[in-house]
């Protein structure tokens, strides 16, 4: 769709209160140009052309934000992160402890985190800060009276380091509650380079080319796709990329706000397109409904040139799981943008926002730190992480693949679409075994039932949105 104006228009859903950027050109450029063909992993040279001074520089030991002394203070931070993701975040928290003297405890949370927080609040022991993965969850936390607005210092840091679009998705009723500390480019397909070479396959740019590539991989003796169907959010991500590219950003925004129904012909078209892969015999690795996301990634890059699958769709964060194998990102494990289904490639983003539940000098200081380049640069250097903070240079990331992904995200400014299911009420878009997650799992099992899937999606969406 043509971009006709520089104006970013916003509309609010009474359920989500999520700003929806309306521009498109830069978003298409992001998807098309985020990765060059055959990106090679390398060390972190500053390939963005900016000096440290231009980026409020500093590296892991640099300081760009002043924090108070908090000797004797203690904080709890809750998130659903596990494994390397949790371990790396703890290193960021350790730097905060070093600078302030505060003691920070990481509290492992379960999904959906809103339910976890509800039990903590009911027990009189909520964490001081929670990392919320959905704008809808921020809205729920505000409506329940749990979330506290950011103070002046945190808001100032956020304003200096984030585009307006990333600030707005952390707002509810015009007040800033969330710091989107962690972002994701969820429009990427990772592939086993040796499998592609054996099959004579090239990186596809369109959906039809993807289907051709999949057939070439299949003919070479390898199942084309690994799908982590045990976790419904991976399936919503598949749908959102197809739908955004095929139906366009206007329809995407309307469906995200439930202004059009899931029985709309555009949804039928997207599900029918998905079925070209999900419903193709032997195109998806066996046991997809029992395969969790980490396994869906690792099984694509283990087994030499005979892995369980040649490709796996998911965001930049898949690098964490690739790192658990012997595959080297950029050499053994390569990546291409999600192919264009319609006129332009899709650009779907997600993220995790820090939200204060217990207002104190220490919790506000942590939010300020997480909004600064300092925290993001530490985490960026550890890999498997992407920041929307525009003052974190590409050189902070450990390899060329991540440097290009990060630079493209920042360069896109406000031109992106946020994960649709994350914008929905959690009962529909963010609860295991329910709503969109469960219905798309059923569709993965039976991709022929397009009409039935649409009817179930609409019934559950109507109940969750209240319309």
Automatic annotation (TrEMBL):
Keyword Transport: yes
Gene3D superfamilies xrefs: Periplasmic binding protein-like II
Pfam families according to UniProt: SBP_bac_8
Ranges of Basic residues composition bias in the record: 1-11
Coiled coil regions in record: none
InterPro entries: Bact_solute-bd_prot1 (IPR050490), SBP (IPR006059)
Region of interest (Disordered), residue spans: 1-20, 46-65
Key words, A-Z: Transport
Similarity comment: family membership: Belongs to the bacterial solute-binding protein 1 family.
Protein name as annotated: ABC transporter substrate-binding protein
Source species of the chain: Streptomyces atrovirens
């Amino acid at each position: 769709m043509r971009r006709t104006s520089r104006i970013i228009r916003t509309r609010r859903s009474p359920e989500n209160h999520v700003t929806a950027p309306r521009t498109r050109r830069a978003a298409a450029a992001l998807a098309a140009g985020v990765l060059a063909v055959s990106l090679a992993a390398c060390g972190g040279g500053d390939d963005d052309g900016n000096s440290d001074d231009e980026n409020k520089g500093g590296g892991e030991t640099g300081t760009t934000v002043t924090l108070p002394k908090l000797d004797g203070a203690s904080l709890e931070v809750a998130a659903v992160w596990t494994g390397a993701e949790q371990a790396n975040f703890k290193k960021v928290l350790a730097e905060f402890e070093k600078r302030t003297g505060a003691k920070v405890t990481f509290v492992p949370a379960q999904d959906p985190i809103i339910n976890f927080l509800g039990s903590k609040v009911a027990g009189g022991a909520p964490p001081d800060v929670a990392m919320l993965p959905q704008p809808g969850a921020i809205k729920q936390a505000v409506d329940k009276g749990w979330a506290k607005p950011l103070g002046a210092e945190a808001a100032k840091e956020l304003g200096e380091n984030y585009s307006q679009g990333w600030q707005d998705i952390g707002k509810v009723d015009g007040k800033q509650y969330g710091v989107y500390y962690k972002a994701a480019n969820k429009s990427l397909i990772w592939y086993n380079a040796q499998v592609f070479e054996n099959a004579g396959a090239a990186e596809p740019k369109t959906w039809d080319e993807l289907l051709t590539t999949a057939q070439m991989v299949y003919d070479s003796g390898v199942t084309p796709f690994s799908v982590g169907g045990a976790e419904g959010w991976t399936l919503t991500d598949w749908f959102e990329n197809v739908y955004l590219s095929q139906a366009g950003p206007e329809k995407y925004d309307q469906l995200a706000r439930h202004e059009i129904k899931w029985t709309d012909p555009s949804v039928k078209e997207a599900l029918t397109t998905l079925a070209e892969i999900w419903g193709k015999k032997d195109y998806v690795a066996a046991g997809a409904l029992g395969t969790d996301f980490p396994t869906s990634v690792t099984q694509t890059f283990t087994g030499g040139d005979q892995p369980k699958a040649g490709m796996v769709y998911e965001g930049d964060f898949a690098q964490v799981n690739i790192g658990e194998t012997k595959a080297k990102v950029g050499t053994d494990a390569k990546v291409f943008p999600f192919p264009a289904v319609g006129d332009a490639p899709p650009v779907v983003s997600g993220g995790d926002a820090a939200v204060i539940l217990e207002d104190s000098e220490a919790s506000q200081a942590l939010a300020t730190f997480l909004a600064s380049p300092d925290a993001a640069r530490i985490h960026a250097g550890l890999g498997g992480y992407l920041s929307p903070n525009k003052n974190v240079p590409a050189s902070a990331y450990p390899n060329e693949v991540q440097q290009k992904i990060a630079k493209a995200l920042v360069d896109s400014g406000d031109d992106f679409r946020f994960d649709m299911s994350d914008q929905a009420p959690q009962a529909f878009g963010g609860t295991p075994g329910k709503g969109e997650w469960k219905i798309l799992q059923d569709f993965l099992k039976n991709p022929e039932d397009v009409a039935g899937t649409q009817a179930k999606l609409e019934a559950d969406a109507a109940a969750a949105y209240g319309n």
